[in-house]
Amino acid sequence: MIGRSEVAGERNTLTRFDEPSRSHEPARPLGPPSEDS
Description:
Elements: H1 2-36
């Protein structure tokens, strides 16, 4: 049961992190150039 829970938790965390990660990827490059402007 723990093994299944751990796998499900890790998969959920990876998916949740993947969503924000994509949003942060474009925001990171936009951050430095925005300040330069």
